[in-house]
């Protein structure tokens, strides 16, 4: 790193970086230690304290995001980020530009995935609404059929009972008349 460029940039301390990244100070130190183990160099003051620049914070932000990915360990995330920086420096690509481009690509990919998921949910929601409407209509038809069937059954039953009662009355009346005429 060039000292002239770093002298013009604002340095952040561990506490400030922790607040910016919404992580604990111990986590910032752990990230820094792992990054240093992978060959990354931080600016240090005369008391050997690390000073973090925007570039360092962006890298730590990437490490934090990568480490939350399922199946990616913190060490894997640090290794990936620091190797990316080393390759970028070797190829004279500005890490900040590389970081922005990668973040933009990831953001676009996440947006695409979110939109695809939203469209799928919307389609499923539409299908569910149609299914519910069909089921509701079928239930109404079944209810109407059941009510009509019960009404017809009740009507037939009532008519049958009435016929039976009339037949009994006729038999009783006919039986009385027969008895009356037989006895004479």
TrEMBL record:
Domain HTH merR-type, first and last residues per copy: 12-78
Record keywords, A-Z: Coiled coil
Coiled coil: 97-141
InterPro entries: DNA-bd_dom_put_sf, MerR-type_HTH_dom
Domain of life (superkingdom): Bacteria
Annotated protein name in UniProt: MerR HTH family regulatory protein
């Amino acid at each position: 790193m060039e000292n002239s460029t770093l002298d013009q940039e604002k340095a952040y301390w561990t506490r400030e970086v922790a607040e910016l990244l919404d992580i604990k100070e111990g986590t910032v130190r752990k990230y820094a230690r792992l990054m240093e183990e992978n060959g990354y160099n931080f600016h240090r003051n005369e008391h050997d304290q690390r000073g973090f620049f925007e570039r360092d914070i962006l890298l730590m932000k990437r490490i934090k995001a990568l480490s939350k990915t399922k199946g990616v360990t913190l060490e894997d995330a640090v290794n990936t980020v620091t190797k990316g920086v080393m390759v970028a420096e070797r190829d004279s690509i500005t890490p900040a530009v590389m970081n922005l481009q990668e973040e933009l690509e990831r953001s676009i990919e996440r947006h695409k995935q979110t939109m695809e998921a939203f469209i799928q949910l919307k389609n499923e929601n539409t299908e569910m609404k149609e299914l519910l409407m069909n089921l509701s209509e079928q239930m109404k038809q079944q209810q109407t059929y059941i009510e009509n069937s019960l009404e017809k059954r009740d009507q037939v039953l009532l008519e049958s009972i009435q016929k039976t009662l009339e037949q009994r009355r006729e038999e009783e009346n006919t039986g009385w008349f027969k008895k009356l005429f037989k006895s004479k």
